[in-house]
Amino acid sequence: MTAVEIPPNAPRLARGDRVRITQMILGRDLRWPTTVEGVVESFKPEPTGSWYAHGKGDKLWLLRVRLRKDDGEITTLTLDAHSTIEVLNRQ
């Protein structure tokens, strides 16, 4: 996988799709799930401010999804191997 590819097992999301994303925070003896539901504003690899020797443009690229929650709050999630995405409604 190059630095900016979306993983092949990730669902293809489009602006307007309603999704539920569950992320897992892992500790030594615990798993702490957190779930966010909202409408996709964007879904794309984005660079961090961190330098990374072999990343495109010398940046570390992370897969991010920006959601608009029901209360209007905009939140950005960085997806990883412990993230699951459930598409609730396609736009």
Structure commentary:
The protein is mainly β and 91 residues long. It has strands spanning 18-26, 31-51, 59-68, 74-78, 84-89. Strands 4-3-2-1-5 form a five-stranded antiparallel sheet, with no helix packed on it.
What string gives the helices and strands in order?
EEEEE
> What gross morphology would you assign?
globular
The SS-based structural class is mainly beta
Average pLDDT metric: 84
Task: Assign a percent range to the helix content.
Answer: under 10%
List keywords for this structure.
91 residues, mainly beta, five-stranded antiparallel β-sheet, 5 strands
SSE diagram, text form:
Layout: E1 18-26, E2 31-51, E3 59-68, E4 74-78, E5 84-89
Antiparallel strand pairs: 1-2, 1-5, 2-3, 3-4
Put the structure in a nutshell.
With 91 residues, the chain is mainly β.
